[in-house]
């Protein structure tokens, strides 16, 4: 197959992990006789530096034509004092909206080798394998009005949803559950929010289309508790944008492998933006220390979700597991009896497995 | 001193733990020569059953005249299918608003005897001692409009704040920090929400009035992570209503002692509503199994915050610690080498210590 991939390296360690992602994609293409082409564009702080905007028109144009997008990371202290519209994160929010990337998928899985680094007790976290399906282009993030009033004496933000926006993310969650353990936990705050009550109604309607999947409703405060006390309870969690932001970050630290977690953000055509969950880590940027595995696992999600390449994706995930099994890792990770290598060497070892 | 206390036993185990709270208050009055008078009123499901509303006028009237209010718990499956305005929680939301209980204080402290029940590793959680100061009468909980539009095709909720509402909760947080370890973490989502940007401005202004307190800003997603990875990092966390709901429940399970956690909700006159953090636990209601210690510690908060009785509060906290040290506990708690007793007996043992 021929696929065109837009790379958005971004800031900090973004360029390093993007290089790892590209090398791995190239290796997959070689082994499976695909043809992947690449082009790179600026986003975030890098784009502010070069184009005085966190999201240049060129970047958006290229992204809209791509089969998939890989993003490294955005942000850093260098741009922290700039006014709101010139902040690196605006690039990320902008591209989500402009490409209609409504479905953010964040799997959290325990790697047995890394469990000892978890803040949770081994027996609490060991069996964890969950997927958070977060609505990504609605809710408090984009609702209008969002403004100060009365000379700055009052302020409002708006949590707004169209019914159709809720329907498509709920469909996504049910479909994700169908290829997993077939259980959906829909998280809301229906005892307080009108939007949550509509959310619940949509879930109750939709469930009849997925009779093979069981579904339950859980309040967001209860979900925040249960993620800590019993993360293995969950299969698929679906929730609105802000709740998803909070819960997915909470979930990301449970298994002790934040440096390993991938993500995908999909639109209705299946085009996706893939990025590691970790940030731009400016403190270690440029030192070839960054862990490339979250990016490589994000590439596996790209192969699966945007290219329909199931076999290639599984092969890549197996390669990562193999390298971990051999004890190789970057310095962010503490692996008993393991060998610390540079980020580029770790990526090369994954490539060698392919 | 003479004090008049309104008791709102509510539902499930609410009446049992309220009785424990009352007995302890009576014991404090006897020992320190105070005169406490009591009156009981319905709220929540009990009020729905007796008055067809979760918050009868009588209850509000009495609460407004009280020096302090004790609430047991509200809710249960019996009332789960009723329409929104007839849900037990509406009683709780209503009384918060009508009494102007804007400041919810939720301390989370590790009890060494109970740490083994924590989902976190002992070394991660042992030193935890934090206070969440949650804004309780603004934000998404009460903002207007909150409604469906276009024949139910769209829905909005509104996150609204007055600057003065932010100022008073931020003042409360700084003042709480002054009698603790003098550090405030203000939690917001300033990279997305306009209300968070105003929140940050207010904190930046206010901090000059409290030069003895250090303050930092943290994004809500980062705070949700750090609560799990390093809860001992925090002293006072201050945040808006919905973030506070999520983070305080997340925090409540960290130390393995959810059955032990008290809370206070204060208004501008220092009148407060005190309640255990745990719910109404309908499954064990009426069996004298409920752990009264969260309620008893809520009484200690009442003595301190509404009555200015520091010594009495400390005496009561010491009594709870003493009973735990002797190994007595209810069945919800697992204490190695301890003795399981009924809820009423555990409360009696605390009373005996006073
Ligand atoms: C950078 C920020 C705006 C963003 C969000 O809140 O969505 C980030 O936290 C994320 O989860 O991708
Ligand atoms: C019952 C519910 C409305 C309430 C809230 O969300 O405030 C509860 O979760 C709490 O934290 O006291």
UniProtKB/TrEMBL annotation, chains A, B:
The keyword Cytoplasm applies. The keyword Manganese applies. NAD(+) binds at residues 76-89, 279-291. Residues 4-350 form the Isopropylmalate dehydrogenase-like domain. Homodimer. The record marks 141, 189 as: Important for catalysis. This is 3-isopropylmalate dehydrogenase. InterPro entries: IsoCit/isopropylmalate_DH_CS, IsoPropMal-DH-like_dom, Isopropylmalate_DH. Keywords: Amino-acid biosynthesis, Branched-chain amino acid biosynthesis, Cytoplasm, Leucine biosynthesis, Magnesium, Manganese, Metal-binding, NAD, Oxidoreductase. One of its GO terms (cellular component) is cytosol. Pathway: Amino-acid biosynthesis; L-leucine biosynthesis; L-leucine from 3-methyl-2-oxobutanoate: step 3/4. It comes from the Bacteria. It catalyses: (2R,3S)-3-isopropylmalate + NAD(+) = 4-methyl-2-oxopentanoate + CO2 + NADH. Binds 1 Mg(2+) or Mn(2+) ion per subunit. Belongs to the isocitrate and isopropylmalate dehydrogenases family. LeuB type 1 subfamily. Substrate binds at residues 96, 106, 134, 221. GO terms for biological process: L-leucine biosynthetic process. It is an enzyme of class 1 (oxidoreductase). Catalyzes the oxidation of 3-carboxy-2-hydroxy-4-methylpentanoate (3-isopropylmalate) to 3-carboxy-4-methyl-2-oxopentanoate. The product decarboxylates to 4-methyl-2 oxopentanoate. It is found in: Cytoplasm. It comes from Halobacillus dabanensis. GO terms for molecular function: 3-isopropylmalate dehydrogenase activity; magnesium ion binding; NAD binding. Its main location: cytoplasm. SUPFAM superfamilies: Isocitrate/Isopropylmalate dehydrogenase-like. Its EC number is 1.1.1.85.
């Amino acid at each position: 197959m021929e696929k065109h991939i837009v790379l958005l390296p971004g800031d900090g360690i973004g360029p390093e992990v993007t290089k790892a992602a590209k090398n791995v994609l190239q290796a997959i293409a070689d082994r499976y006789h695909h043809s992947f082409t690449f082009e790179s564009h600026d986003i975030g702080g890098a784009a502010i530096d070069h184009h005085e905007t966190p999201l240049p028109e060129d970047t958006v144009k290229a992204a809209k034509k791509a089969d998939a997008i890989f993003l490294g990371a955005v942000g850093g202290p260098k741009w922290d004092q700039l006014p709101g519209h010139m902040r690196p994160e605006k690039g990320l929010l902008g591209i989500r909206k402009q490409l209609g990337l409504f479905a953010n998928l964040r799997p959290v899985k325990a790697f047995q080798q890394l469990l000892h680094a978890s803040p949770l007790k081994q027996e609490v976290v060991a069996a964890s394998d969950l997927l958070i399906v977060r609505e990504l282009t609605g809710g408090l993030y984009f609702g209008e009005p969002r403004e100060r009033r009365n000379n700055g004496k009052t302020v409002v933000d708006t949590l707004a949803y169209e019914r159709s926006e809720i329907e498509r993310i709920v469909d996504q969650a049910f479909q994700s559950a169908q290829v997993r353990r077939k259980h959906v936990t829909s998280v809301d705050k229906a005892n307080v929010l009108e939007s949550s009550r509509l959310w619940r109604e949509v879930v109750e309607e939709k469930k009849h289309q997925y009779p093979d999947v069981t579904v339950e409703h859980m309040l967001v405060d209860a979900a925040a508790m249960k993620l800590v006390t019993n993360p293995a309870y969950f299969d698929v969690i679906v929730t609105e944008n802000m709740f998803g932001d909070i819960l997915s970050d909470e979930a990301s630290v449970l298994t002790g492998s934040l440096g390993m977690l991938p993500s995908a953000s999909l639109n209705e055509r299946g085009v996706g933006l893939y990025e590691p969950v970790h940030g731009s880590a400016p403190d270690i940027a440029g030192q070839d220390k960054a862990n490339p595995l979250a990016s490589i696992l994000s590439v596996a999600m790209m192969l699966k979700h945007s290219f329909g390449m199931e076999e290639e994706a599984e092969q890549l995930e197996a390669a990562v597991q193999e390298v971990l099994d051999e004890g190789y890792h970057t310095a962010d990770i503490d692996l008993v009896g393991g060998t610390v290598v540079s980020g580029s060497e770790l990526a090369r070892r994954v490539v060698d497995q392919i």
